[in-house]
Amino acid sequence: MICLITGITGFVGSHLADLLLSEKCEVLGTRRYRSSLENVIHIVDRIKWWESDLTDYTSVEEMLRKTKPDEIYHLAAQSYVPASWTNPHSTLITNVMGTLNIFEAVKNVGIDPKILNCSSAEVYGVVYPDECPIKETNPFRPVNIYSVSKIGQDFLANVYHKSYGLHIVTTRAFTHTGPRRNEVFAFSSFAKQIAEIELGLREPVIYVGNLDSVRTITDVRDMVKAYRLALRYCDAGQVYNIGSNQTYTIREGLNMMLKMTDEKISIKVDPARLRPADTSLQIPDASKFIKKTGWKPEIPVEKTFRDLIDYWKKKLSNPNNDGI
Question: What is the DSSP letter of 210?
Answer without folding.
Answer: -
